[in-house]
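ARCHIVE CARD
Drawer: 12
Card no.: 0347
Subject: one protein chain, sequence and derived structure
Cross-reference: see card 0346
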Amino acid sequence: TRDPVDELINLGGITWKFIDTAGIRRRVHLQEGADYYASLRTAAAVEKAEVAVVLIDSSESISVQDQRIITMAVEAGRALVVAFNKWDTLDEE
């Protein structure tokens, strides 16, 4: 995802706007072109959010980029949910 994708969802009579944004691959000042602008849009979405959901790939270690997005949400004072996908790909140990 490079451009944020919005979807309005009604849950229990309350309408919520979910926004799927691009991840941040590396430091914004090192990015170029579309990745640079995608990172700026992601940062802006975090600033506007009430709750940030950070999706972590369970098959990999938590990256510096994941930590950066989590820090961005915390520093913005947003509620934070950390979710893990690909959990089924891990062995039982």
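Annotation on reverse: The beta strands are 5-11, 14-20, 51-57, 79-85. The chain has two helices and four strands.
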